[in-house]
Write a structure and sequence with these properties.
- By secondary structure, this protein is α/β, with parallel strands linked by helices.
- Helices cover 44% and strands 15% of the residues.
- The N and C termini lie far apart (54 Å).
- The mean pLDDT is 91.
């Protein structure tokens, strides 16, 4: 009997050298029945050499996102790849991260052994130039922790894009990647949505992939982090997450408190990194709309955001005031 096919969806843009490393880790898998769907998001120059990858291994499919969709972005590429995927299982892999050789084998085995599960999650380490034995974990998994609570600000985010191996049938219950979240937050939102919709999952012991620490061209680099906050990208993701929690009846008092703090924190980070008061205000309006803030509290915060440019001995009084009042510790 032929083993199940795993479809590995890899969005990429202008990263041919790193992409080759990523593809190398895929080709080294002990589970041999896979296809890698590389979706190019508009690479230029030599970075378009990804089209040569199928000649390296016939299991690699290289497609141009523009041949399928006019919109750009990693989340759009992942949706394109999902539609093209032929496998029973789907893995989303970033074009600069690496799979450990046994990654697919152990995850597929877990899903075959437990047909009641919709996905399984592997643990990862963070690395710089190349993985090492003493690299730190992405996050510690504490026994009994509530992963949805952790995603909502009550702990370290427990996994990222490549953490889950999904049953493709289960992804239909989650829905597509949110293409309105153009710059950031789309993986966070997808995982929250899956948990809110009650998908069954298990976390596997041991590490099986490696997440590359941010560089200058990474969405999670420091400069990228600042830009995402300034333009309100993280606020847009927060609004989508809040909608998922409320819409699926998953709000609890502790989550309400965490999301309330998160709204204020995101508004402050938006202003701190040069975002407009109106952009920052979207987080507060979203929290107010879901009853996380009283009307007078929302007005107080909006006034502080509007007075952001006032300085006192180099300090930002509005930020200090809001932190004291709402304890968000940005």
């Amino acid at each position: 009997m032929e083993p199940p096919l795993v479809s590995i969806v890899i969005p990429t843009k202008d990263r041919i050298a790193l992409l080759r490393e990523t593809i190398g880790s895929v080709c080294a898998q002990t589970h041999r029945h896979w296809e890698a769907i590389v979706v190019d998001d508009g690479s230029t120059g030599q970075a378009t050499q990804h089209v040569e990858l199928p000649s390296v291994d016939a299991r690699i499919v290289s497609v141009r996102r523009a041949d399928h969709r006019p919109e750009s972005g990693a989340q759009v590429c992942r949706n394109v790849g999902t539609v093209l995927a032929r496998g029973e299982f789907v893995l989303y892999l970033d074009s600069d991260d690496l799979l450990a050789p046994d990654c697919l084998r152990r995850r597929v085995a877990a899903l075959l052994e437990h047909p009641e599960l919709d996905f399984v999650v592997g643990q990862c380490t963070q690395f710089g130039h190349s993985p090492k034995d003493d690299d730190p974990l992405w996050a510690e998994w504490n026994p009994g922790q509530d992963d949805l609570d952790a995603f909502l600000g009550l702990g370290k985010i427990p996994w990222q894009t490549t953490g889950p191996l999904w049953r493709k049938a289960a992804l239909a219950r989650v829905g597509p990647w949110d293409e309105s979240l153009v710059h950031a937050g789309h993986d966070h939102e997808l995982h929250v949505r899956a948990l809110c919709r009650g998908l069954a999952y298990a976390k596997l012991p041991g590490t099986d992939y490696h997440w590359r620490r941010p560089r200058g061209d990474s969405l999670s680099s420091l400069e990228g982090f600042k830009a995402h906050h300034a333009r309100g990208s993280m606020i847009a993701a927060f609004r989508a997450i809040l909608t998922a929690v409320v819409g699926n009846g998953k709000m609890t008092p502790v989550r309400r408190s965490a999301l309330r703090r998160e709204a204020v924190k995101l508004a402050v980070l938006c202003r701190l990194h040069g975002g407009a008061a109106d952009t920052a205000a979207e987080a507060i309006r979203a929290a107010r709309g879901q009853g996380l803030l009283l009307a007078w509290e929302a007005r107080e915060i909006l006034l502080a955001l509007a007075c952001w440019r006032l300085r006192l001995a180099g300090r930002i009084p509005a930020m200090a005031y809001l932190n004291r009042r709402h304890r968000f510790a940005a």
